[in-house]
Amino acid sequence: MNSGSESDKFSLADFFLAETDDPLVPPPDFLKWRRDVAWAISLYEPSLGSAAEAICQLGSRPVINMASYGYLALMRHPKIIQAAKDALDQFGTGSCGSPILSGRTTLHDQLESGLRLLTGKQGVLTYNSGFAGALGTVAGLLRKGDCAILDERSHTSLVDGVRVSGARLAFFQHNDPQSLDSILTRESGKRRLVIVEGIYSMDGDMANLPALLEVAESHRVGMLVDEAHSILCCGPGGGGVVEHFGAGQRVGIQYGTFSKGFSSCGGFAAAAPEIVDYLRFYSNPYGFSCALPPATVAGLSAALEVMREEPWRRERLWENGDYFRQQLQRLGLDTGDSDSYVVPIVIGDDRAMLYELGHALRDRGLFVSPVDYPSVPLEKLRFRASVTAGHSRESLDQALGIIADVIVPAMRRRGLLKGVQV
Amino acid sequence: MTREAIQAVINKHIMEISEEIQEAQIDPSRSMKDLGLNSLDIVEIVSCSMRELKVKIPRSELSKLTNLDALVDILHQTVAQKEQAPAS
Prior knowledge:
The complex is a heterodimer of chains A (422) and B (88).
Chain A: H1 28-36, H2 38-41, E1 55-58, E2 61-65, H3 78-91, H4 99-102, H5 106-119, E3 123-127, H6 130-141, E4 147-151, H7 156-165, E5 168-172, H8 177-186, E6 192-197, H9 209-218, E7 222-226, H10 240-244, E8 253-257, E9 267-271, H11 273-282, H12 284-287, H13 294-309, H14 312-330, E10 342-348, H15 351-364, E11 366-367, E12 369-371, E13 381-386, H16 393-413
Parallel strand pairs in A: 2-11, 4-5, 4-6, 6-7, 7-8
Antiparallel strand pairs in A: 1-2, 3-9, 8-9, 10-13, 12-13
Chain B: H1 3-17, H2 39-53, H3 59-62, H4 68-84
Helix pairs in contact in B: 1-2, 1-4
């Protein structure tokens, strides 16, 4: 990104509505913008030459990886890999069709049993994509005339699910029970569903679940909690934020993904068996898409077993997250509302600086993702650092050293550093 | 193009996005959020209005606006500048 150029003023928010007559012709102004900001965008979608572990290979060199969602560092666990290999040998490469028409394997049944134990909910439905599963769960429950009331920082998959369903989409202010109360009152008379996340992906803060549940219950409205970033990582047994707050009986439906804590791919919904049975036929990403591959499913069941045997991974994850966040704060950096292992480093509204620093960090051997508008507010551009159980204290200190060398002086020069707490 | 014509374009797209909103409810001194529209509705209304008016203003500049009057003003200025510019 060239500071001060016309293209710097534009972002991905500006090209949603194409101005061409033919949908197969991309907007020329988008193509020009894409060329102009190629240097900045080259930070995205890098090719890894190794597993997405705490230290990984990026291009030809090792880097400290703080961009992976593999929070519990299970991606190369020998027990999980062996389970997946055995399933590959026995069941082959794929499920070869929609579960309803083409069936699934006994491995899928075992995984669902494990997920019932994890969540305490007796109905479970698995999806081959975390995004499609969230979209499909929401779209399977809501209809035109209904109203979904989402925390304003909810993930796109949940928002898209509401849009596909045709229900009215309303947002309440992030984690604010009064705002939720006011929207629920405004939308009274409709079938309503409150949707929140366990841990918010761009901010790393936990849902204010007790207060929000109290409000939803006072309106007799049910709640869906998306535990994408919290399932297996949060709660004494890994049952997510819902377990952390002891709210299992009060939350109607939990959604979780396999791409983060489980270090795999896919997602699942957990609820009462009657709701899940309804979703089986009305959640199209389930009924009209291939079941998860058997090898993936076997690996997921093994991951559940590993986490029962190795709870230290969850403890280390939280210890690492607390350490990294506190050290960033000691450097005077703004970690937003984070209280978890997802730690934003908020740098303000200088987009040119975001990409200059992003390249400098990458050059120094730290793989951490820049997050630009419109994914986050214009005045709160950031780097989003994921801490994992796989990071050693030494690797976290190295990462902090690089951040102290690269981000801190740039922020100080611009007068953006908070008061340093010694 | 007059300021009133630009307001009419925006109003039309507001009512297309939300069947529940009537023209009489649209108060230019207030924001679209005050009408109960969500952020995605607002992106769509502004994008459709800009496409119809054949102008493009960076979303980063529009995000600072606080009410409908301010949106009409910036669109009116941009349309006027475009009308005055020599044809390329």
